[in-house]
Amino acid sequence: MVPATTEPSTTRPFEHSQGTSQVPTSPKRIVTTTDQNALLPLLELGVRPVASAGLLADDGTQMFRRTEGFDTTGIEFIGEYGEPNAEAIAAQRPDLILGYEFDSDYYDTLAAIAPTVMIQIFDRPSTKHSSTTSTSSAEPNKPKSSAATTKPASAPSSSSWATEPHSSACRSSPQATPASSTVPIPAKRSAP
After folding, report:
1. Could you give all domains of the chain from N- to C-terminal order, each with its CATH number?
2. Could you tell me which residue, 72 or 180, shows the higher pLDDT?
3. What value does the mean pLDDT take over residues 44-63?
4. CA dist., res. 171 & res. 161, Å (int)
5. What is the SS3 assignment for 60?
6. CA of 185: how far to CAs of 84, 96, 136, 137, in Å?
7. pLDDT of 89 strictly over 80
8. Of 138, 143, 147, residue with least CA distance to 102
9. What are the start-end ranges of the E strands in 25-176?
């Protein structure tokens, strides 16, 4: 006879664009590999990651795009979006790494550091919770047109929040961002 457990599981399976990962049910040290497509939606939900990739300006200024209005003080910069720095990520001791489908080349490296979820922001996969389906299987991860990235999706289910856009910033193209929508990362304060 197996004794009944009274402790809830500390992880759960989560399906994403790279497969299924066992993710913590209550992550404490989240790192995001992109600012406007992972950091921003988390900040909008009241979740504060410990670190994120962002934009490195020509003058060396580190910034998180489209995060004006949010306090990003203390969120460590771990490299440029599209080129996450694995050593900087590992140094944060994450218990969960969130990226997006454009970081799929780095998935194995990131997954070796911590459970990793790659959010698909374009052409969301068809699920039993969604009535949207893809009409083309040629390139399922690429938007079919600019209109396809801005159409409102059906209401997300509670189990698919990571695959549904949360703001207009999430539905935008990962192209250039206007300088007026970037927020420089505050300088670190030295200990007294």
Report:
1. 13-18+27-123+159-172 (3.40.50.1980)
2. 72
3. 97
4. 14
5. coil
6. 17, 22, 40, 40
7. yes
8. 143
9. 30-32, 51-56, 62-65, 76-80, 83-84, 96-100, 116-119
